[in-house]
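hey so i finally got around to running the thing on that chain from the lab meeting. sorry it took forever, my laptop kept dying and i had to restart like 3 times. anyway pasting the input first so we r on the same page abt which one it is
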Amino acid sequence: MSQDKCVRCGSCLQLCPMFDATGEEQFSPRGKMYLLQVMDQIENDEELGREFRRLLFQCTLCGRCEENCASGVDLLKVWHEQRAKAIETAPEEFEYLEPLKDALSNVKNIYGLAAEDRAIYWLDELEEEIPGLEDRVYEKGKTAEVMVFLGCLMSFRGSQIDVLRSLFKTLERLEVDYLVMGAEEFCCGHPLYLMGDEKGAQKLREHNKQVVEEAKVRNVITCCPGCLIQLREHHNLENVEALHHTQFFDRKLDTIPEYPQTEEFSYHDPCELHRILEIKTEPRSVINKMGIEFREMDLSCCGGGGLLRMTDPNLSDKIIQLRAAREGVKNTTVITACPSCREQLLSQDLKTKDVVELVSDALEGGAK
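ok and heres what got predicted. didnt touch it at all, straight out
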């Protein structure tokens, strides 16, 4: 088994955001692997099993441990498999996840809100500013070259409206033939995937796949790396390429007007984007095309992934607090390309902009 490769060398230890935030070995990948190896040898130890299952969900699944594992252990695969096994073995320990699973089963979004409201909030805010936006919402029979997959967070969270405004304005300015899935969009399945519920995630994927393919699009684009993992790796889309929005705009724009920079920028790499999807070049390429000078931040996690905000919000907060303090970004604008990272940064009152906000401002002739 993959976990048998672990020699407990500790190469993962200092890079793990969980160990960094707690200073306790059991939160680290090495600590979890030790418990797993011991559990393989000792059966019926209820206390040990309970502790291991708890620790499995105190993880952002950022993948930095796997990236730096000297023994080549497929750690993300181990964590996914063990999470599924944990919920199956002791469902009573994960009753706090039931409201999320019920929401995804019943109304197909993480917030438990009416499915038909997926386009209501941002349409009400933006339709006067962007004429014809309502016509971009998908209905059966409509086709386009590009489908925009917003994801639950960007569909329902008001904190994301500036990114949506910039995204739609840029698509309109570039005369892209696009649709937005709206009420026909189901959650991509990523939250269920993160808890090991492959069957539940697959039901959501099958619906999205049908809608995307019926619209006869060539590309489906999303701002959310978690959604992109599902669309690119698990939806099995036929003749449709799933792209992150920075990939799409990097291809679409050979040149971009210079951004009138008046502030200091830092760039935060979303873990799922640069480490799991290996999309590292395109966000920087787009930024560089605008002539923006920026400082690279350490390739560390913001604390917003892996369901940690639900399973241990205090630990999630501590990770972003430590990151912000260590990087000294209080007086800079943090550029990122992930709605979850954006939420984490905003939670610490940090100024942040998505890459597409900068693109929109540059195309319109000035920073705002």
